[in-house]
């Protein structure tokens, strides 16, 4: 009969369903407990066989359905991801053009202000010179009409005096001519400056119009990119689970974990926040404010690259993934090949005990080189990584998910863990069926409620 129990256990662990939890309402736990016994009645044996067959078929069908959809979803995600990146590139290019045009506007406005000051100065010079010439002409008309002019010359007492008087008259006439020429030059310059001013004002208005047009393009592109982003988000969570099974040798990992003496880890009295700074940039269960925003199974805390990330409680790093660069983008699947979940970038999975309940806490998108390694025993508040921009991201943040696993000890849970990085609580839309507000462990806890966001 123990063989039957082992067959059932293998079937239930298929696809990483986590069983070793103590919630009475959990059907898997009920059958595992009953079917692992040695003194079963014939009716119980039949019930166990039927359940094992049923569960195995359900899990296999689920696996087949995932495999069937994976390629199709991956291709669509790659296409939408590239589309979003193209929008982002266009927006970035337009923003650069807008910044350049705004700089030109500032320069042009300074040039116009200087030109207006120059025009004002010339107008003042022209007015002063015009007044001077007009006064000179008035005086000339009063004193140098023809008869008076001849009387002035003929009144010379001798030839030398006559020459001096003729020279004086020439000087007066030359001065008047020079003043008039200077006045004409200033007026020509003034007209040229005014023409240039009109040209620069027209260019300024054209540049401002161009800026407004580009701003409208940016708004339009952002709206289109948001629609594409929404489409991406609706499918990305469904695909993430494809990489939600730890890679490598589980037996080797369990051997290492068993040597750490996890039974001596004391339970924490409450949850420690993942960061001491940053803001909640996306909430749990859905992106945005409604269910049409796409499934989002955790909260996002946005902060600068390098911001420390802290352990939620006393426990052990059950899994860690590192090696993704800090230049993540929409559609980047990095994380799966490194031993974590698809698109999660550099990540840590913490197994912790809080108020005598076992939880798993998932931290994604860390900076390369920062994730605490698998097997590290930590205390609440210890640094386990830093915020980065790795994997499937649009900006620097840490994505946090919380799983309630039951009352089994850390040591017992670690020794029987299947390697499922969703901890038996499902993923994508299916993850919404395992919310702790509706079902028992294993289930998903809304991080904002336990971390106080």
From TrEMBL:
What start-end ranges are recorded for coiled-coil regions in this protein?
49-139, 180-245
Where the record annotates domain Peptidoglycan hydrolase PcsB coiled-coil, the positions are 121-190
Q: Which Pfam families match?
A: CC_PcsB, Peptidase_M23
MF annotations from Gene Ontology: metalloendopeptidase activity
Q: Which residues form the M23ase beta-sheet core domain?
A: 295-406
Classification via InterPro entries: Cell_wall_metabolism_enzyme (IPR050570), Dup_hybrid_motif (IPR011055), M23ase_b-sheet_dom (IPR016047), PcsB_CC (IPR057309)
Q: What is this protein called?
A: Peptidoglycan DD-metalloendopeptidase family protein
């Amino acid at each position: 009969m123990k063989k039957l129990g082992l067959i059932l256990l293998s079937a239930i662990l298929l696809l990483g369903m986590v069983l070793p939890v103590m919630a009475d309402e959990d059907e898997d736990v009920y059958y595992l407990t009953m079917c692992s016994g040695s003194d079963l009645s014939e009716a119980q044996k039949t019930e166990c066989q039927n359940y094992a067959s049923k569960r195995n078929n359900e899990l296999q069908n689920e696996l087949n359905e995932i495999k069937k959809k994976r390629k199709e979803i991956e291709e669509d995600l790659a296409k939408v991801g590239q589309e979003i990146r193209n929008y982002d590139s266009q927006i970035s290019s337009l923003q650069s053009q807008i910044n350049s045009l705004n700089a030109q506007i500032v320069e042009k406005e300074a040039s116009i202000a200087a030109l207006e000051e120059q025009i004002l100065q010339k107008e003042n010079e022209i007015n002063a010179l015009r007044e001077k010439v007009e006064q000179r002409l008035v005086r000339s008309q009063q004193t140098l009409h023809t008869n008076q002019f001849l009387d002035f010359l003929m009144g010379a007492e001798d030839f030398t005096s006559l020459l001096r008087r003729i020279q004086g008259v020439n000087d007066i006439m030359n001065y008047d001519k020079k003043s008039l020429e200077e006045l004409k030059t200033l007026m020509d310059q003034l007209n040229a400056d005014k023409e240039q001013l009109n040209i620069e004002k027209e260019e300024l208005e054209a540049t401002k119009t161009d800026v407004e047009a580009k701003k409208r393009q940016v708004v339009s592109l952002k709206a289109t990119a948001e629609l594409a982003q929404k489409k991406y988000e609706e499918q990305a969570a469904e695909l993430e689970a494809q990489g939600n099974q730890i890679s490598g040798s589980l037996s080797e990992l369990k051997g290492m974990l068993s040597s750490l003496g996890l039974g001596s880890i004391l339970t924490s009295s409450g949850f420690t926040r993942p960061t001491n700074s940053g803001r909640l940039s996306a909430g749990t269960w859905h992106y945005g404010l409604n269910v049409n925003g796409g499934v989002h199974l955790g909260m996002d805390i946005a902060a600068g690259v390098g911001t420390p990330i802290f352990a939620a409680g006393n426990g052990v790093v059950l899994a860690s993934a590192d090696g993704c660069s800090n230049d993540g983008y929409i559609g980047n699947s990095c994380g799966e090949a490194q031993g974590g979940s698809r698109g999660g970038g550099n990540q840590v999975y913490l197994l912790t005990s809080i108020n005598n309940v076992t939880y798993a806490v998932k931290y994604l998108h860390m900076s390369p080189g920062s994730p605490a390694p698998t097997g590290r025993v930590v205390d609440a508040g210890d640094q386990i990584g830093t915020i980065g921009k790795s994997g499937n991201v649009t900006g620097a943040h840490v994505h946090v998910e919380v799983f309630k696993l039951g009352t089994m000890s850390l040591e017992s849970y670690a020794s029987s863990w299947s390697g499922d990085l969703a901890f038996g609580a499902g993923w994508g839309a299916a993850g919404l069926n395992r919310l702790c507000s509706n079902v028992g462990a294993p289930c998903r806890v809304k991080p904002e409620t336990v971390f106080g966001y």
